[in-house]
Amino acid sequence: MRKLFSALFLTFFFFAFSVAATSQVVVKSDQSSRLANGDPSTVIYQYKFENERFVVPLQELEFDGSGHGHFRFKKKESEELVNELSVSSPVLFQIQSLFSQLNFLSSQENYQHKKDFSHLGTVTITQTQNGRERSVRFNYSDNPAINQLREIFQNIVTQETRFFELETVRATDPLSTPAQMRMLDDELRSKRIADPNRFVPLLKDLKLDEGVPLITRNHAERLLQRISKGK
Fold it and tell me: Where exactly are the structural domains of the chain?
């Protein structure tokens, strides 16, 4: 009886070990397959803007194919700040489409205009995918697609900067929120915000926040209505 029990135990043990080993191989195989097939998360996009003359001389975005990453910036005489970033699906689709249109990784095109406009600041755009990487650096270009890509990246920077400033002022200096709201209003009107819906949760909170001036609460309500109408 004891021998029969031992035999059954050993059989069960080897069976369980075999199942675990097989499951582990399947997981690894599935992960390798996703990477080989170009899993979107293996794509990295980077954007850097530099101009020592500006109040904010450095602004940088880095995110993967799912839109997750970081926004880094530095003001003069201040420490560098890094915030988490999540690029919305519609904006991400525009970016991916433009990189495809440019055939960015395989192209040899020099996007820099023949004239130097370095006083405007220098832009560096990078794409990394499946072991390949390409960076381009320019201050002005007459290529429509690269200019559109640059504009979208810069609109993300403007969006994340305003979101950070508005949240910070709300927490530390509520009386200054009306000025921040006016700037956000101007940026929305001039289409310099990549994804206006980014502000919807914050504006809903501000609309009900009695810790900020009434003018801020009323302005938040108006902006929510405009965003909902797509204006």
Answer: 42-228
